[in-house]
Design a protein that fits this description.
Oligomer: single chain
Radius of gyration: 19 Å
Helix content: 40-55%
Structural class: alpha+beta
CATH superfamily of the largest domain: Aspartate Aminotransferase, domain 1
CATH topology of the largest domain: Aspartate Aminotransferase, domain 1
Strand content: 5-15%
CATH architecture of the largest domain: Alpha-Beta Complex
Strand order of the largest sheet: 1-2-4-3
Order of helices and strands: HHHEEHEEH
Number of helices: 5
Distance between the termini: 39 Å
Length: about 140
Amino acid sequence: MPLGAFIADKELMMQLADNPVLGHITTFGGHPVCCAAGLAAMHALLDEAMTDNVTQKGDLFKSLLQHQQIKAIRHIGLLMAVEFDSFETNKKVIDAVIETGALTDWFLFASNCLRICPPLTISEDEIRKACTIIIDVLNKI
C-alpha cells in the first residue's frame, strides 16, 4: 500500500504553501486504507522486534564484504552503499549479481556504489548467501 509523509519545521512548511503552491502535499498521503496498513506495519515492526538485530546484521554484511575492489562500505541500518572505483565496475558487478537471481542497483547520487537494501527480516544465512554472490562476482571480473 503506498503511503508517504512529509515532515518539516513550520517555516519550511509555510514556504511550501506558496512556492510551489501546496508543494508539501503528496499523492500517497492520508488515504484511510493506506494509513491502516502503515499503522499495522509499524505495530509489526515494534511488536516483532524487527529492528533489534539491525546493527548485528549490518556488521555481518560489512565483515563478509571484504575485497580489494571494494573501496568503502557506508550504511545506516541495513541500507548500504558498497563503493567501487567507477560506475563501469559497479555496473559489471550489478549485472553479474542480477544474473544470479539477486536484486541490486546503484544510487542515483552515487553511481559507483552498489545498493544493498534487504528487508529487516533477512536471516544471517541469507546475508551470507548475498555476500558470497557479491564476492564471487568480484573474483570473476
